[in-house]
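sorry for the late reply, my laptop died twice this morning and i had to redo everyting from scratch. anyway the thing you sent over, i finally got around to it. pasting the sequence first so we're on the same page, its 701 residues, then the predicted structure underneath. double check i copied it right bc i was rushing
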Amino acid sequence: MEEKSLLQKLRSYPPAVFFMLGNEFCERFSFYGMKTILFIYLITEHEFSPSKATFIYHLFTCIAYLTPLIGSIMADSVFGRFKVILYGSTIYVVGHVLLSLGAVPFLSYPIRSSLDFSGLFVIAFATGCIKPCVSAFAADQFTEDQKDLRSQFFSFFYFAINGGSLFAIIITPILRGRVQCFGNQHCFPLAFGVPGVLMLLALVLFLLGWSQYRKYPPSKENVGSKVIAVIYTSLRKMVGGASRDKPVTHWLDHAAPEHSQKMIDSVRGLLNVAVIFCPLIFFWALFDQQGSTWVLQARRLDGRVGHFSILPEQIHAINPICVLILVPIFEGWVYPALRKVTKVTPLRKMAVGGLLTAFSFAIAGVLQLKVNETMEFPPTLGRIYLQRVGNESLITDFRFKNSGELIGDGMLPKGRTELDAGIYTFNTGIKNESQEIDISIQNKGYVMAVFRLDQGVKVVKFDYKVEKTDNGATRVFVVSAKDDENTLVYAINKKGKILSSCELKSGSYVDVIPGIISDPNVRLYWGPKSSCSGADCPNTVALNAQMGAVHVLHIHPSTTEDDFNLLVRPNSVSILWSLPQYIIITLGEVLLSVTGLEFAYSQAAPNMKSVLTAMWLLTVFAGNLIDMMISGTRLIPHPALEFFFYSILMVIVMGVFILLAMQYTYIEDNDEEITITESEKKDVIALTEIESGTATSDKKE
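ok and here's the structure:
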C-alpha cells in the first residue's frame, strides 16, 4: 500500500488538534515570555538583591512544578481534562493581567507588589494545573486506529512548544529593554502584556474547538494512593512485627495478602527506578539556574557582538537551538558510532550527562572569575569614592572638618580617591581660598569639580552609584563651571538619531542604550536649545559607548575626549564566552534528562506511568528547592565559588550514581508489558521538556 503524503495525513487529522497546536504555541510563549524577564524585573523594579530575586524566581518554579500534581488529580478524579484546561487557562489570563498591571511604574509600591506576587502565584498555579492535561487531551482526539497519526502529531506538538518558547526568549527581552515607556528605560508593562495577550489568544483558540473535542469523563483511577497503601502496609507490618514468622525476599512482600502480588511487584520496580531520579534533582538545580544566576552573570558581560547587541536573558535561547541541532546529530551519528566500539547503555549516557552538567558550572565559575576582574566594587564600609575633576590644579590642606586631621600630605590628586565618609575642608585657588565639601553618605561615589574662574573658585559636587549601568547602557554625567538650563546635551548615533538628552547642569546625564543593531561610536553635541536641536549644535565630542560604563565629562569651551573621566569600568568580557557553558549543559540535558525518563519508563510496570510522571515533576520541584536554599539565601556569598560548589556537588552525586548504576540489573523490554509507545513517551516528556523549551528525539534507543 502506497504511503500517504504529509498533506494527505494532515487532512486525516481530527480538526480539533489544530486548535490545540495553536493553543500550545501561544501558552508556551506566554509562560516563557514572562519567566524570561522575571529575574531582571525583580532586580530592577523591586530592587531586590540578587539572592532574594533568585529565591523568588525558584519559588515560582517550585510552585509551577508542584501544582501539576493537583491538576492531574482534578483531571483524573473530578473535572476531566477538558474542564481543567478551560478553568486553568481562564485563571492563567487573570494572572497575566495582574502581573502586567503591577508593572505600571506610577502605581504605589504596595499596590504593585500585591499585583505582582498575586499574579505570579496565579500563573504558577494555572500553568501547573494545565501542564499534565494539554498533551494528553490532544492525544485523546485521535482514535485507536490513528496511532501513527498521533505519533506524527506529537512532532508538530513539540514544534509548537519549541516555537513558542524560542520566540518568547528572543522577543520579550527586546520589549523589556529596547522599548521605553512611562518615562522608564524598561517597558515591563508591554513585556508582560504581550505574553498576556498570547495567553488570551491561547484560550480563544481552545474555545474555538469546543464543539469538535472528544471529552472523556474523569477516570477516577488513583494509582498513587495504591502505591502509598502498599508501602504503608509493608512498613506497618514490619514495625508491628506482624509477619516476622514469614520470611520474605523483599520488604514490600509484607503487603500481601492485602495487596495483589502484581501490585507489589509494580511498586518494587518503581522504587528500584526511583534511585535513577536522584541525580535528576541536582541536574534541575543546576539546569534551572540558566534563568537566574546565569542571567546575573550575563548582565555583567559585554553583549555587543559586532553591531548586534544581545540582552542577558536572550543568551538562554542557545539551549533550545542547541537541542534541535544536537539531538539528531547524537541519534544519527554519535550513538551509532559509539556502539561500534563500546556498549551504549542509558545509565552510561546519564552518567556522562551529569558530569557534563557539572563541567558546565565549572566553566561558569572560571568565567565569573574573569568577570570579577572587571567589576566595580563599592567602597568598603564607612568609606566613599571621591573623583576630582575640573581645571583647578592645586588643592592643599585637605583634612577632616571636625577633627582637623590632615589627609595624607593634604594634596588631593585628580582622579579617584577612597576616603572615610564625612565633611572635609581644603584650600584652593590663587588666593588659597578655604572650601568645604560634605561627602558623608557612606558607600557612595562622589564627583567633586573644582573650577578656577575670573571671580574666584567654584566647587561643584554630586553623587553617583558605584555600580555598572543596567540594560547595556553607557552613562555620561556632565559637569560644568556654568550650569545653563537653556543649553542641552544630546547623544546622537551615526544615523543622526537622538538617543538621549539632558540639560547642561552638573550631575545631569545622558544614557546611550544600544539598539538591536547599533554602532558603539556615538557623538555628544551641546548648544543653546533656541538655536540648535541635535547634530546642528556647534560643540561636539566623540564617545565610544561601552556596556556598563559610567563617565563624567567636563564641558568647557574647548572640550575634547581627554575631558572624559571613567567612574565605573565597562563590561569587557564578551557574552560569547558564555556559549561553552550553555552548549555543554545542553549536552548534559540531552544525555541525562531525556534518557532518564525514557529509561525509567522502560524499567517500570505500565500501571506505574502516572506515578513516574509525578515523581519526575517532583525532581524539578526538589531541584529548585535546593536553589532556594543555597543561591536564594546567599549561603555562598561569592558567585564564582558558588558555581564551583554546584559543580563539585554534581560530581559527588554522579559518583554515587555510577556506583549504584554498576550494581543495577536491567529489566529487558517486554513488548507486551512495559514497552512505552512513542506517543506515551512524548506525552510525559512534554511535562518537563517545555521547561527548557526543547524537543526530544522520536527514536527510542
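Residues 273 and 600 are 6 Å apart (CA to CA).
thats about all i looked at so far, will dig more tmrw
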